[in-house]
Amino acid sequence: MAKNKKNRGNREFKSDVFSMLMEDKSYALEVFNVLNKSNYDNPEEIVIIKSDHGISLSIRNDASFMIDGNVSYYEHQSTYSINMPLRCLIYYANDIEKYVDFNEKDLYGTKEIALPAPHFVVFYNGIGKRPEIETMKLSTSFCHETENPELEVICTAYNINPDYNKELKEKSRVLYGYTIFVEKVRRYATTREKLEEAIKRAIDECIEENILKEFFLKRRKEVEKMTTIDCRFETREKLIKRDAYEDGFDNGVKSELINTEREKTRADAAEQEVEKLKKIIKENNIKID
C-alpha cells in the first residue's frame, strides 16, 4: 500500500485541457445545463471543489463543482476504465466527509443531514470503439450478483468523438470545441516529431475559426504543454496494446500484460515529464491550484 501511494505522488501534476476548461464557471455551467436539461444562468452560483484527489493520473477526476444542491464529477478519458463507479464512490465519499466536517454536521444527531445529490459523468474520446452512451454501475463489480444492491453508484459515459452525440455537442460549445481541438491534433500529429507543431497548428486554427477562442488565447502555453503530455501517454498506450495483441497471447494474459505495462509506462514517463513540467511552470510563472 505504501509503495502505491508513493507512486501516485510521483505522478501528480495538473490535469489535461478538459479540466482547464471546467475551471471556467461559465463553461462548467453550460455543460451542466446541457446534461441535466436545466436553465441556470448565473455562473457565480457554481462552487468549484478543490480536491486533493483531482490531479493524479492513477485516481483523479477532472472537474467537480456544486450548484443548487447538486454536486457534479466530470472526467475526460481517452482510455476506457470499467472501474469508474468505484472511483466515483471514492471521490464522493472523500468530499462528503469534508462537507460534513466543514459544516459542523452531527452524524449522531436526530436531524437528517441534507447531502448534495451527486452526478457522475465521463466524456470519452479515445480511439477505441465505445457506445454513444453507456451506463456503468458499481454493483456489477460486487463479488456476488445482487438483485437489489444496498449500495449503488451509477456513472454515465458519453462518447464525444466526432460521429457520436452530435446533438449534445451542438448544444455545448465547450464539448464541441474540445472535440474539434482534439481531432485537429490527432490529424496533424502524424509522427512523434510533429506533435508540438500539430498542437500549435490546432490552437491557431481554433482561434481563427472562433472555437473556444478566448480560452486558447488566455491559456495557450498551458494547453500546449498539457496536450503534449497527454498525447504521449495516449501513444504509449496504443503501442502497448498493439504489441500485446501481435504477440498472440490469450485474452487473460493480454489483459494482465496491458495493465501492468501501462502502469509501468505511465510511472516511468511521468517522472520524466514532471521534471520537465516543473521547469516549464517556473519559466512561465504558471499558477497551479
Number-wise, the strands total 6
Radius of gyration, CA atoms, in whole angstroms: 20 Å
Q: Widest sheet: strand order?
A: 1-2-3-4-6-5
Q: How many domains comprise the coordinates? A: 1
Coarse structural class: alpha/beta
The share of residues in extended strands comes to 5-15%
Please, what is the average pLDDT?
80
Characterize the main sheet. 6 strands, mixed
N-to-C span: 27 Å
Helical fraction: 40-55%
Number of helices: 9
String of helices and strands: HHHEEEHEEEHHHHH
Uncertain parts:
1-15, 53-60
Shape: globular
Describe this structure in words.
This protein has about 290 residues and is an alpha/beta fold. The protein has one domain (about 1-285). The protein contains nine helices and six strands. It has helices at about 1-10, 15-20, 25-35, 85-100, 165-170, 175-190, 195-210, 215-245, 250-285, and strands at about 45-50, 65, 70-75, 115-125, 135, 155-160. It has a six-stranded mixed beta sheet, with helices on both faces. Helix 6 runs antiparallel to helix 7, helix 7 runs antiparallel to helix 8 and helix 8 (about 215-245) packs antiparallel against helix 9 (about 250-285). The chain is globular. The chain starts with a helix and ends in a 5-residue tail after the last helix.
Short description:
This protein is of the alpha/beta class and about 290 residues long. The chain has nine helices and six strands.
